[in-house]
Amino acid sequence: MNQRFVKRVSAIVITGILCLVPGYISAATVEDFQPASTNQPARQYPQVNSERRVRARIEAPQARSVLLDIGGVRYPMTKDSDGVWTGDSEPQDEGFHYYQLVIDGAQVPDPGSKFFFGANRWGSGVEIPAHDQDFYALKDVPHGHVRKVLFHSKSTDTIRRAFVYTPPDYDNDLSKRYPVLYLQHGWGEDETGWSNQGHVNLIMDNLLAEGKAKPFIIVMTYGMTNEIRFGGIREFNIRPFQTVLVNELIPYIDANFRTRSDQPHRAMAGLSMGGMETRLITMNNLDMFSHIGLFSGGTISASDITDMDAFKQKIKLVFASCGSRENPGRLKPAVDSLQQAGINAASYVSPDTAHEWQTWRRSFYQFAQLVFQDASVPAAADPNFYIFLCFGQSNMDGAGRIEEQDKTVDERFQVLATLDDSERDRKKGHWYPAVPPLCRPTGGLGPADYFGRTLAAGLPEHIRVGVVNVAVPGCKIELFEKDTYQAYTETAPPWMIDFINEYGGNPYQYLVDMAKVAQQSGVIKGILLHQGESNPNDQEWPNKVKGIYDNLIKDLALEPDEVPLLAGETVNADQEGVCAGMNEIIAELPKTLANSYVISSAGCTHKGDRLHFNSAGCREFGKRYAEKMLSLLGYEIAVSDASAR
User: Fold this and answer.
1) Selection from 437, 369, 375 nearest residue 208 by Cα
2) Strand-strand pairing, 73-76 and 78-79
3) Does the model's pTM come out above 0.70?
4) Are 97 and 356 in contact (CB under 8 A)?
């Protein structure tokens, strides 16, 4: 519900009068008024100037009094000799505002404005251009569709309406299914609000065009089953609408749209009253919803949760927001309490706005970039546990000597034991502090060690880092090709067969199996590769790596644009690397595989054999992998002199 109508209701209930403000037509007013973007076609009024004042005009020669009413504040209008009334408001906040004209006491819409449903009626609205309006601007990008659907509600014995946004590619790939967000309006508004006033479809179109959000379906329906008298919102009972949403609308949407109909792929969010509905319904139905968005609609804190284990297992995101002129002080303590309990939670405060559409547009823009980012993760996984798969040959296995400084590690950096290690009391499939070796029990220090340490140091303290490492010394890249690895193993030397057999004879499948174990605990965020010494002059190496990457993405149900692959160079020419010529081929990988990056080995020292990095070289090399990953995750870091390409 718009803040200005909250003020208006309070004025009626408490004092019975409304504020009357003198007109603002004066020498101080900047005369650069332009027609509002919310006007009817070819209508010149209302207009907005650079001070964010609204100027209204209407022809009413018989009227004795005309007022411009914006959110309960009324501004006198002046009649000229032709019977045309004109008046200005004081400066308004950026964004959308409901308004009306009061002609001889009658409250009427302005015929110059388009109509919007708000304050329980169809009426006028005016858009004040915002400095950040680009995120909901109509642009030349692929556009989704807002479809009107009618569904039968047995519980209310009515035909009800919903609007459904489908992403731009919905009608192109008929095999693809999408997560669903159920998005609710505020009190006094209806299911048209989010698309008409909120521009939610344009926000999504622009986010998708920029690659900032995952595509999902949005369902918007009327949030009440009974009409509540003015001022009687406390009488609202959530149960009847919950029945409509959970038992009737959701089954209808799943039956008629290509949805991903399981709990991890269903979210609910809402503004004001819709936020209240979201909070109540999601807390009552943890098996139905995994992502929660509250826009000016209250908060959820740890003290509100009766079964913390169930909540942590099922809920992947809690997002709460409001305007800076509302009650932002409530957000941070609630979100902090959730984060401290190990729940993925975020908050947002819209600058210089109150309980109004610009707050909610901005809130949705922030929320849409977070929701379903972990949609392929099992419900039990911790979204704040970032997991990275590592594979390759001897340098990834770990060829550097493990020194005393390497034996102490932040416990936020973990390794999944891929092999039993009796010396260190490690069991396959369990997580441990990432003290090297991180691959085979007889391995040494590798780039994954200082990748994880640097990454953990650069990420917020509530985020953990884990690595899963399967590497075979001396192997060609062909060993990790899913369908043809056996042809390679038949020619491998006996000493390598022993290594391969440690991984069940199929290192690729072993890596996939271990990755699936890891996915029960966290989110796969990237893949690290170091290999190439055994494939010198192999011009097909980039294509082979792409094939392995594509199979990993498919077999682990990952999204390729969310899981980058970082490939490191062999010992560099500046270190007289034996296989330095392979780096020219490795450099071609980003041309073949989108979302792949090459990590420079320049200056990284070796053990004397010009093939294997020594301890110092491994530390520096690992830091470079981490620096690139931090930047891809959106964190600013101080990059090493030799940066990733």
Assistant:
1) 369
2) unpaired
3) no
4) yes
